[in-house]
Amino acid sequence: MKKSLLVTCILVGLVTIIQSCSKLEPASPKDENLLDGPVEGLSYEESRRFLSGDVAFNDEIFTPEKGLGPVFVATSCGSCHAGDGKGHPFTTLTRFGQIDETGNKFLNQGGPQLQNRAIPGYMPEQIPLGATFSKFTPPANTGLGLLELVSDADILAMADPDDNDNDGISGVPNYGNLPQYIIPFANAIQKDGKYIHRFGKKAAAYSLLHQTVNAYNQDIGITSSYDPVDVYTHLTIDPEISTQTVNDVVFYLQTLKAPIQRQQNDSEVKNGRVIFDRINCSGCHKPTLKTGISTTKALSNKTFHPYTDLLLHDMGAGLDDAYTEGTAKTFEWRTPPLWGLGLSPNSQGGQYHLLHDGRAKSIEEAITLHGGEAANARNEYIQLSAADKNALIKFLKSL
Amino acid sequence: MKKVITTLTIILIGYYIAEAQIDPKLLKRSTLDTAKQSLNMDAVYERPFITVGKLPVSLGGYMEANWQHSGTDGVSEGHQFQFRRMTLFVASTISKRIKFLSEIEFEPAEKEIAIEFAALDLELHPLLNLRGGMIMNPIGAFNQNHDGPKWEFTDRPIAMTQMLPATWSNAGFGIYGKHYNTNWMFGYEIYASSGFDNSIIANKENKTFLPAAKENTERFEEMASGQPLLTGKIAVRHNKIGEIGLSYMGGIYNKWLDDGIVIDDKRRLNIFAIDFNTTLPNLNTFITAEWAWINIDVPTTYSQQFGNKQQGGYADIVQPILKREILGWQNATINLACRFEYVDWNVGKFKETDENIGDELWSIMPGISFRPRPQTVLRANYRIQSQKDLLGNPPTKTAAIQFGVSTYF
Predict the structure, then answer these.
(1) Residues of chain B contacting residue A51, judged by C-beta atoms under 8 Å apart
(2) Which of B301, B345, B356, B386 is best to mutate for the A interface (most A CBs within 10 A)?
(3) Which residue blocks in B103-249 are alpha helix, DSSP H?
């Protein structure tokens, strides 16, 4: 009888544990606290493509045997974009050799990007004597597919090169040449054979395919069928990654969800949003954009809130590194999207590394380092009361 | 590989034929109590074996199988059934002072059939024995004493499997010896063997990862560095206090010379480990712990993704709470146990920020085990784990419920 009771107790205990095991595991963070994850509404087939890209982006590690380098910046995509968020100074990359729109004069000396690391037995690149340079902290990946689908016409509508509205803010697109493997988007607007580029600190990348191929090649030293020129030998070599994998990563980037704003109903956050408009931060950081038509239904005709205009702006002498890309001036920077800003410390080692090179260690420092076209907004911020400053910062952290 | 499978098949068929033809009473099973006190270095022979009649060959082995349900930050893979491994031992007493032991491990998940140990032991004197063949490098204690049925946990210690390579064996030669004196035991081992290669700093784990070298089976024929890996250990045991072991493993790990041409600097790796185990009197609480430090010469022009210093270890506390007849098993034991683990795969600071590099993990794993007999264990664990990435971002939290069986046979 005792034995039967014992066996029964053991069986009941086991069944109870098995039934409740998921309750003993850590709960999932709220979706609004995560930057990674797909947009809503993907089909099963699209979800599978997203997962394939996710694995290639976050899990595929490149070794010398898999084509890493021999000179490189990082060993995987995920190394620079932890959790699909902003990067850390450890993976900040350096570009050098171009001072104006006439192009990079140091392409034959390793430009435009410094591969500052090398596999054992090799030496990394050095910045050539006389070359100016700038450091770029990796951006967040979230919502990029939505930004890619903003029409050129909408971008141009936000531009005001001659400051006709006299608000002190101009804004110009970065026109650039397309690599051979890029097919222009439908309804793309060209000027003198050049197209509006929108990704990157200087808006020097046309599309996510352009950005991805460049990153594989320049950051990891991986050639593809799109760009088969080895960054070390400058010779064409066999692709070191499949075209399918590159395409999967591009699809992954296109279908990463947009960050979700938190504390939207908090009164201080609402007040901060009002101040954001009042001091004209929104002159460049446009709160709302919309997509056009996409073959990915979940991305078509969406209104979203990235807080960018995808245009270049004069940011003043303090942020002029004497280096540029495309037709941008050395003091011009593309307006970075502010969405996901509050979650940046989760991917930057627990603290902020803001502005193009991570020099600002807080949102407030980033604001006060704004100059040029943003000088008026910065000055107005400085004159705000402490309560209003706090409200604005809280709003920005809620993004 | 085919040869190994063929040999095993012949051994197994021979064994079963012998079993069928011989009076079962002739099968002699050693009733080894695996909890009995001995040095960790004795572990390869301190196993239960079956001998058949007067055949000079003894057979043994163990298996491990688990069920687990784990989740990380709300993402769960659901129920997982795992057959971790089955290991066969074949020992042969060639003469009174010459022995041969082999250990062959099957790991279906890794699609791996590996000879972990296959060495000849030649006794010249109790303090001087020659061992040669496929030897198990005696770094730390777990590498020597890793049989599943000996442990109260379904998982092996993380630091001893993902920082140090577990069951790390190489072709090599060396000497060992022991000395006994009433309550005291002293032992030493020194080996020269094949060793590591560049994969320890260039691998799919994206970190300095010594176990990556296990995938290079060429090391059994040709060493990357051309220079021997030296491993040495000394251990002292007092029957009433416990055992302490100090071990070292080191050498040049990279391929620096190819076809007579120098292609890289010589890069060195040094590992130090300390291990300790004891049984508290009266309470019979068994405590075992191990800690290791690794220093690796990583080129400064390479990436700090690959650390040049690592450290980590674990401590297990096992408390028998019931030892009596349970469900018909005489002297069955129920134990409560808890494991504490920590690993830092990248000790140091970022050059760019002078802040600590992350890439670290800690884990606590309470558990309960039931041993119907000393060689068989049923165990249930609950793992709580926190892991930081390289940049030191907020840690991922993992929890897992595990149930497993492991037995010698």
Answers:
(1) none
(2) B301
(3) 158-162
Look at residue A346 and tell me if it is in a domain. yes
Q: Point out which residues pair with B405 in neighbouring strands.
A: B65, B378
Q: What is the pTM of this model?
A: 0.88
Q: Identify all chain B residues contacting A347, using CB atoms and an 8 Å cutoff.
A: 391, 393
**A65: in domain:** yes
User: Can you tell me the distance from the alpha carbon of A108 to that of A197, in angstroms, rounded to the nearest whole number?
Assistant: 24
Side chain identity, residue B377: V
What proportion of chain B, given as a percentage, has pLDDT over 90? 69
- The 3-state DSSP composition of chain A as helix, strand, coil percent (nearest 5) reads 40, 10, 50
Question: Cα-Cα-Cα-Cα dihedral of A18, A20, A26, A31, to 10°?
Answer: 120
Nearest-Cα distance to chain B for A232, in Å, is: 15
| Structural domain boundaries, residue A344 | 41-398
Q: Show residues of chain B in contact with A122, CB under 8 Å.
A: 301
- φ, ψ at B98 (rounded to 5°): -130, 120
Q: Are A134 and A275 in contact (CB under 8 A)?
A: no
Sorted by where each starts, the structural domains of chain B and their CATH numbers stand as 2-408 (2.40.160.10)
Looking from the CA of B181 toward its CB, the CA atoms found within 13 Å total 7
Give the count of domains, chain A: 1
Is A65–B301 a contact, with Cβ atoms under 8 angstroms apart?
no
Structural contact between residues B307 and B207, judged by C-beta atoms closer than 8 angstroms: yes
Chain A partners within 8 Å of B390 (Cβ): 79, 82, 90
The span from the CA of B326 to the CA of A182, in Å, is: 73
The SS3 of residue B65 is: strand
Q: Which residues contact A196 (CB under 8 A, 6 or more apart)?
A: A152, A155, A156, A173, A174, A175, A188, A189, A206
Q: What is the DSSP string of B169-184?
A: EEEEEEEEEEEEETTE
Task: Find residue B123's DSSP bridge partners.
Answer: B129
CA B165 to CA B173: how far, in whole Å? 19
DSSP-based helix, strand, coil % in chain B, nearest 5:
10, 55, 35
A22, A72, A346: residue with CB nearest B393: A346
> CB–CB of A346 and B394 under 8 A?
yes
Give the tens place of pLDDT for each residue, B332-352.
999 999 999 999 999 999 999
Residues 89-108 of A with CB under 8 A from B: 89-90, 92
With beta carbons less than 8 A apart as the criterion, state whether B379 and B154 touch: yes
How close does chain A come to B149, measured CA to CA in Å? 21
ipTM passes above 0.95 = no
pLDDT per position as a tens digit, B104-136: 999 887 777 888 899 999 999 989 999 999 999
Nearest CA in chain A to B203: A63
Chain A residues inside the 8 Å CB shell of B215: none
pLDDT tens, A235-288?
A: 999 999 999 999 999 999 999 999 999 999 999 999 999 999 999 999 999 999
CA dist., res. A382 & res. A388, Å (int): 10
- Determine whether the interchain pair A61/B382 forms a contact, defined as Cβ–Cβ distance below 8 Å: no
| Separation of alpha carbons B172 and B137, rounded Å | 9
Counting one residue from chain A and one from chain B, the pairs whose CB atoms sit within 8 A come to 116
Q: Are A290 and A301 in contact (CB under 8 A)?
A: yes
Please indicate, yes or no, if residue A49 is contained in any of the structural domains.
yes
Q: Do the domain assignments include residue A12?
A: no
